[in-house]
Amino acid sequence: MTYHISFWNLENLFAPENFPNREPWLATAVAADLSGWTEDLFRQKISQLATVIMQLANGTGPDILGVCEVENRFVLDALVSEVNSRLELRNYDVIHADSTLDQRGIDTAFIFDQNNFSVDPNSVFSHFVMRRTGTRDITQATFQTNSGHELVALCNHWPSRSGGAVESAGFRATAGETLSYWHERIREEVGNDMPVIALGDFNDDPFDNSIQYNANASRERGDVERSRSARFYNLAWNYLSQMVEDHRGGERIINGTLYYHNDGNIFDQILVNRSLLNGERGLVIQEESVHIDAIPQMVDHRVNIGPIRFGLPKGNAADNINTNGFSDHFPVSVTVAEHG
Fold it and tell me: What CATH fold (topology level) applies to the domain 2-338?
């Protein structure tokens, strides 16, 4: 049995501007950005996201999908309902905990197929990344296959580079330390051989200090396989560049999961521990499967632009979005095999 695990930054998936259950403090904070963000525009965004999700894993949809930049459970339920209606063999559900710290109220979460996995609610945690201004939590959940094998997954969205990459680096270092801390606690609670995967938008590249030193994520597989400490192997080194097809049928090399001012960054990454490399508890990563999901209709035909954005509503949403777009990030995916 194999399982397809993906991550995707959904780019500002907010409920419509007059959503009645939005907390008052958040309604005030996002009022200007969501002006004109109508029900119709929201539903179009949901449809565009579903179009991509259903194409992941060779058109079968992922078994587990980590997501970020989602406002609340309402938007996740809307997305799951849309995808379930298009993929009749899937039975997706949501793992979500509201973030109380992020200044825009955006969260991390998981979408997973209940046909293949179960999740004990007591295994779901929301880890605060403490800093002087609010930020996103790290969502942790333990997935169990029908055969009884367990996988601990941590979904990340680290602080942005707003204000400058160097100036904000300390915030991501704190996030990296938080991830590393909980990796160590997992090992203490459930054993050093528990399979652990950490995935997300880290807002840093694989070679940055927050990833390599604070999160303890290496590009050297052998070092992690032999390690007895809480270390990750960073699969993102395998897709620093990738040949893809664009929506016009041409081929091009991409070197980023997102692009800023025409420069690619590999911010969306998948980290795995020794157990997943060695198959110590029935689950083993298939390293050759890891890739950027640059679905052709997502890929801009211009050079070094990357994914076609749906955009961020600002002032008047209708003037600031592209309803034919999707997100400013590509998804990333890997396959996990079950044995024994």
Answer: Deoxyribonuclease I; Chain A (3.60.10)
